[in-house]
Amino acid sequence: MILHEHYRMKTIKMPPLRPIDIDSIHRLLKIEFRKYKMPVVDLIQVQTRDPFKVLISTILSARTKDATTTEASERLFAEVNSFDDLARIPVKRLEKLIFPVGFYKTKALHLKQLPEVINKLFSGKIPQTVEELIQLPGVGRKTANLVVSVGFNKPGVCVDTHVHRICNRLGYVKTKTPFETEMKLRNILPIKYWISFNSFLVSFGQNLCFPIHPRCSACPIYRFCNRVGVKTKYSIHNE
Ligand code: SF4
Q1: Per-residue pLDDT tens for 37-52?
Q2: Is 134's C-beta closer than 6 angstroms to any atom of ligand 1?
Q3: Whose CA is nearest to atom 2 of ligand 1?
Q4: What is the pLDDT of residue 238?
Q5: Which one of 110, 132, 152 terminates a domain?
């Protein structure tokens, strides 16, 4: 039985969560990040420094494994490097190039619609704010925040399933949805950490703080974590 359930069943007041030392957590996750494979969108930014490619690969990455996104992006960028290219290429060809990313038919349609919307609303230039970016087809808040932070190196708070899960486990936030987590982080996370926070937590979530059976016994931030809702025991034998 996890600690929080124990206290609830005994109707004993739960001890307060330990305060979060976000500076130490960020410092340790930065070291951890260097051990792992970079998330695909960061990788594309490092390799290309091209906001167009960051935007497109971020759209492709939704509900798709990084390895699949990487391969689909490579195939696509071999033929498409600008909005003009997207306007020219038939949608069936787009489908073929990006298959098997999740929802590839819908994503191909969204990519096909992008040049017209970008031209009409933003004079052919990729906008640099979340509020503008979410007007683009296939772009939700997560994608928009990632394009702002990774594509333009401006403060954005991108909350995906990893960021949402880990922030709740740490006890840094107590939220039900990624949107709530984003809004909360916008209030409490120092702005100097906004750009790197998503990258660090995504790779940490992919490699150590797994959705099921997080490897707490190997965790560099264990002493800072409240492990809210974590059922795995702190023992390597149980993980
Ligand atoms: S201690 Fe466990 S739950 Fe907490 S961050 Fe580390 S791996 Fe995740």
Answers
A1: 888 888 888 788 899 9
A2: no
A3: 216
A4: 38
A5: 152
Q: From ligand 1's centre to the CA of 19, what distance in Å? A: 15
Q: Domain end: 106, 131, 152, which one?
A: 152
pLDDT at 7 over 80: no
What domain range includes position 164? Answer: 3-9+17-36+158-238
- For residue 127 the two structure tokens come to 């906008």
Provide the greatest CA pair distance for the chain.
66
Instruction: Tell me the whole-structure pTM to 2 decimals.
Output: 0.84
Q: Which residues contact 170 (CB under 8 A, 6 or more apart)?
A: 20, 25, 221, 224, 225, 226, 228
Which tokens is 235 given? Answer: 């023992």
Residue 214 CA: which ligand 1 atom is closest? 7
Q: Please work out whether the CB of residue 230 comes within 6 Å of at least one atom of ligand 1.
A: yes
Whether 179 lines ligand 1, by a CB cut-off of 6 Å, is no
Indicate whether 11 pLDDT > 70: no
The verdict on the CB of residue 25 being under 6 Å from ligand 1 is: no
> Ligand 1 within 6 A of 225 CB?
yes
Q: Is 209 in the pocket of ligand 1 (CB under 6 A)?
A: yes
Give me the chain's average pLDDT, please: 91
Contact 188, 207 (CB under 8 A): no
